[in-house]
Design a protein that fits this description.
Strand order of the largest sheet: 6-5-14-15-16-13-17
Radius of gyration: 23 Å
Shape: globular
Largest sheet: 7 strands, mixed
Structural class: alpha/beta
Helix content: 25-40%
Bound molecules: flavin-adenine dinucleotide
Number of strands: 19
Number of helices: 15
Strand content: 15-25%
């Protein structure tokens, strides 16, 4: 079997399928990251949640990943006046998410894949084109300066959001796909560890500076530093287009993120020189072509990062595909069909929720009603754990609840929360017994 792309999805998939398939070859355009340096301004750390953890456990990789993780139990909201408010993500001890460096995680995943003697990773092998009619990709072996042809049966394209394979299929009409570019981009910055090696902000939280149309976030790293990401419109009055000079960057940070600015060395030069990342949502009408080809991970369904779920979803893809393969055997058309029939609606659901979460993170989180509705939803979950689970918790902590259920259920629950908090500013102004009765009457068990 051939897999194109040895990112998070391709490597985990190879590890999980190695027990079922006699040989797996992974073709990756990049150099082996275990032998080189990450490029500046592209460090990215990711939030790992229940769905990702379930996959890493199933692949028996979790013991190697655990030392890389920094737990985060809630959001620390940094207000404009410099004050902070902590909003827990969940209410049980095990309801937490983890910050992990993308680069370190990828290295562990490569090691895990290569532990299988029937898996081989070919670095510096770039897919340059794909012929949908024959199902064959042309791959440039940069080290040997030659071209090879890579095909099926069951070719799997895990070549990321800009997938050459998906684009070729879309051009010929084999797979209808849309790419909706967000008008906002992102740049990364760093808050280094303190002189004693400790964290300069609370390491147990994901920090957010919500400012309405834009926001800054910070995730902790095991070394005591934080990776910050500034999400901002690409064009307009307050945008990356206007942050081109040191004076402009200084003034922008001074009026919006003064407390963070004080902790970022070389803020202006870093912001100006670091690369601008683009964001978007990829949706396909289908992901497979008979048993010949399957798109998976970001290649099939890139989502914006505001629910911290793109990688978690890609890992969930691997769990599902392995499960179906185990049950069905190598009847690839059947495997791909069944996989797509389950996961396509889930991917569309989390794509929608991720877009909604951007508004929540940069804006709604500042509304006192948001905190009240959070409190009420925790109270209802305590009273009726089988009937009311906050949507965020369903997505992040309940790997067994499909994304599409979380989305549909979340819509019903949000309407209820708005009704129940309409005339209240505090939890003690709400008749909780009456609210419980309403939930019992209107919501079926999950
Ligand atoms: C700013 C940001 C923050 C994010 N935060 C989170 C988060 O907190 N939590 C979360 O779950 N997700 C997050 N994500 C999403 C997550 O990074 C992706 O969903 C995940 O990496 C997808 O994995 P993948 O293997 O499908 O794609 P990728 O990781 O992109 O891997 C694709 C691989 O294919 C290779 N490749 C590409 N083109 C070719 C080619 N032509 N030939 C050969 N190889 C090729 C690439 O080099 C790469 O190794 C974030 C994304 C961004 C941009």
């Amino acid at each position: 079997m051939n897999i194109l792309g040895a990112g998070q999805c391709g490597t985990l998939l190879a590890t999980m399928l190695a027990q079922h398939v006699s040989r797996i070859d992974l073709y990756e355009r990049g150099l082996d990251p275990r032998r080189g340096m990450a490029s500046a301004g592209r460090s990215i750390n990711l939030a790992l949640a229940a769905r990702g953890i379930r996959a890493l456990e199933a692949a028996k990789v979790m013991p190697r990943v655990r030392p890389l993780l920094v737990p985060m139990r809630g959001r620390m909201v940094h207000k404009l006046d410099g004050s902070t408010e902590y909003l827990p993500y969940g209410q049980r001890d095990d309801e937490l998410i983890f910050s992990v460096s993308r680069g370190q995680l990828n290295q562990v995943l490569l090691d895990a894949a290569e532990d299988h003697s029937n898996v081989q990773v070919h670095f510096q092998h770039e897919v340059t084109s794909f012929d949908p009619a024959s199902g064959v990709a042309r791959v440039r072996d940069h080290a040997a300066d030659r071209e090879v042809e890579v095909g099926g049966p069951a070719l799997i394209a895990a070549d990321g959001a800009g997938s050459v394979v998906r684009n070729a299929c879309a051009r010929t009409g084999l797979i209808a796909a849309t790419e909706a570019r967000l008008q906002h981009g992102y740049k990364e910055l760093t808050i280094p560890a303190a002189a004693d090696g400790g964290f300069q902000l609370d390491s147990g939280a994901l920090h957010i500076w919500p400012r309405g149309e834009f926001m800054l976030i910070a995730l902790p790293n095991p070394g005591g530093d934080f990776t910050l990401t500034l999400f901002l419109p690409n064009e307009g009055e307050q945008s990356f287009a206007t942050l081109k000079t040191e004076q402009a960057v200084e003034a922008f940070f001074e009026s919006n993120f003064a407390d963070a600015a004080a902790l970022i060395p070389n803020l202006c030069s870093s912001l100006i020189s670091n690369p601008l990342g683009l964001l978007g949502t990829v949706r396909c009408q289908r992901w497979h072509d008979g048993g010949k080809l399957l798109l998976i991970g970001d290649a099939a369904h890139a989502v914006v990062p505001f629910h911290g779920q793109g990688m978690n979803l890609a890992f969930e893809d691997c769990v599902l595909l392995e499960q179906i393969l185990r049950e069905t055997g190598q009847h690839w058309q059947q495997v791909f069909e069944r996989y797509e029939s389950i996961q396509l609606t889930n991917a569309n659901a989390i794509a929608d929720m991720a877009l909604e979460n951007y508004v929540e993170m940069r804006d709604t989180v500042r509304d006192p009603k948001f905190a009240l509705q959070k409190q009420l939803s925790f109270e209802l979950e305590r009273r009726l754990p089988n009937r009311f689970i906050p949507r965020y918790s369903m997505v992040m902590f309940h790997a067994e609840i499909p994304y599409r259920v979380a989305k549909d259920r979340g819509t019903l629950q949000q309407a209820l929360l708005e009704r129940l908090t309409r005339d209240a500013d505090r939890l003690d102004q709400i008749d909780l017994d009456a609210a419980t009765a309403i939930v019992c009457a209107e919501l079926t068990p999950i």
